[in-house]
Amino acid sequence: MSEYEALCADDGDLADLRASVRAFLAADRATYGWEPAVDCWLAKWDPEFSARLADAGFVGLTIPTEYGGHGLGYLHRYVVTEELLAHGAPVAAHWIADRQVAPGLLAYGSEDQRRRLLPRIAAGTLYSAIGMSEHGAGSDLAAVQTRAVATDGGWRLSGTKVWTSGAHVAHQIVVLARTSPLDPEHRHAGFSQFIVPTDAAGITISPIELMNGERHFNEVTFDDVFVSDADVLGEIGNGWHQVTAELGFERSGPERILSTATLVFTAARALAAHGVDDRTAAEFGDLMARMVSLRQLSVSVARALSDGDDAAGRAALVKDLGTRFEQDSVELVADLIDTLDPGAPDTLALRGLLATARLHSPLFTLRGGTNEVLRGVVAKGLGAR
Ligand SMILES: Cc1cc2nc3c(=O)[nH]c(=O)nc-3n(C[C@H](O)[C@H](O)[C@H](O)COP(=O)(O)OP(=O)(O)OC[C@H]3O[C@@H](n4cnc5c(N)ncnc54)[C@H](O)[C@@H]3O)c2cc1C
Question: CA 147, CA 177: separation in Å to the nearest integer?
Answer without folding.
Answer: 5
